[in-house]
Structures are given as C-alpha cells and as structure tokens.
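Posting this for the archive.
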Amino acid sequence: MRFLSLLIVALLAMPVGQALAVDNVVNRILVKINNNIITQYDLDEKLRPVLAQLGDRRLSDSEKRQFEQFRKHALADMVNDILIQQEVEKYNINISDEDVDKEIELIKKERHLDDEGFEAAIAQDGLTVDVFRERMKQMMQKKEIVGHMVNKKVLVTDSEIENEYEARKDEYTLDKMVEVAILMLPPEVSAVEVRTRIKDGEMTFAEAVSKYSVGPAADSGGSLGEMKYADLAEEWKQALVGVPEGGVSEPLNTPGGEALLSPVKISENSLVPLEDVRDAIYQELMQKRHDEAFTEYFDGLKERAVIIYMDESLRLDNGE
C-alpha cells in the first residue's frame, strides 16, 4: 500500500481544474455484505473530498490507473467498516450523545479550540458538526467492539517481558562514555614539564588548566563534557589508551599547539536495567499482540461473512 499515501498527497496537491469526468451513473449496488449493501452513491460520497480537490483536471493514463486502485482501497475500507458496524449492532454497543460530547470536548481542549475554531477546523475537511459527531460515534463504537473482542484475548506475562529483554540486550547496552578535559599549552610552556608536575602531585590537572591553558573551558577545569568514546578523534583515543580516570595523557599535538588530556570520568559499556525499560517492552508487546489478535479476529469475521462483489473488477487484490 506504499503507493496509496503518495497518491493521496499527489491528488490533493493537484490544482483545481479539469480532472476526472464523472458521468451520471445509475446508483447501482457494488457490494453486498451480509444484509447490508454499498452503492455507487455511497462510494462517490466517500471519495467526494478527493474528487473536489481534483476538480476538472484531466488525469494521465497512469494517474487514472492509480485512482482506480485508490477507489478499490476506499471500497475495501467501506466493506471493513460495515463488518465492524454489524458487530456493533450484534453486541448492542451503545455510545451516548454525552460520550460523544466528552470526546469532542477533549479534542477541542487538546487543540486549544473554541466552538468556532472547532467548526472551522472540521470544515476544512468538508465536514459539518453533525457529520463529525456521527463519525466520532462510529469510531467510538468500533473502539468498544475491538476492546470487547480483542483486548480481552491479549496478555503479556513477566516472563515474556524478561525473554524479550534478553533477546534485545544489544538495544539496551549503553555506549562507553568519557568526560574529557583538555589543557592547551602556550608555545613557551613545555607539555612534558607540566605533565611531570601533575603526575608528581605538585598540582592537579584542573589547577594546571587554570594556570596555563589557552584553550576551551579554561575556567572549568578544561572539561569538554561527556561524549561517546567512539566519537573521539583517533588521535585522542590513542592518547587516552591506558590512562586511568583522573589521569593525564602524554602530550598531544593539535592544530592549536601541544595539549594534555585527562579522562575526568569513564563510563564503560553498561546495560540499561530491566526495570527502566519494563514498561516500554510491555507496551510494545501489548501492541504487537493486539495487532495479531485483531488480524485473527477480523480475518475470522470476513470468513464468516457473505461478501459479494457485483463487479469483481472492484475487488482489491490480495497484497495491495
């Protein structure tokens, strides 16, 4: 279905003009779904917003073929919607006007809209408040039936979370990090001499930075902050080999002159504790199980239903 989202964007981006010649057609039945039907008029109404954007623009042969696939997808979506709606009626799922009002108020609050702003926003999609309310009610009904038929079958145990954590440990391993401090020395000061004084304990690295450094962060001990060890320049990595936390490197030649480095803090590769990612893994597994359960439920729903396409050329081929 990758072409579909691209097609929609392309269609909506087309200037209004001569687009698609729509002849007057008989309001024929396109699909029968158990005791319900979808007519040509129903499909045209579904496509009205897109057709309105197309206007009278004449489409190329390629665009016409893509539009026909778009129509098939739209029709298949309508069939699926009817199947769900039949389940809603079967199980007597009721959504009150008050429930719809609460949901709309929540949307308005999240988007910082008053009544007038809300009406203007949905009008951009070609909807009236009444139509929007009806669609919102249908959506809430579908959510209820999915929750009733699917969510109750979804379960994720602690052992499954732990197994997933073990299988994905690479994702939860933190890279080696190092906080590096740098002492940039002026030409008249010997890096070897300063390093010797630091190692002999005559002064700390931070004191040497304060006294001699002509480089960055001279007023904060020369610290450049924490960074991934893998991101360091190769010359810096070589200078820091074997240097313990708080130690001082051999002199390093830089474009700004001689310098000394100190690994203020070294954090070796570490594993994020399970408890820190337990909730995230749970949510991922729940979503995966939910999708699998819904697919199983919906496939069964379609198998049990009597779905008859009056014109087989309108049926969406498998894999599209």
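Residues 1-24 have pLDDT under 50 and may be disordered. The longest strand covers residues 257-267.
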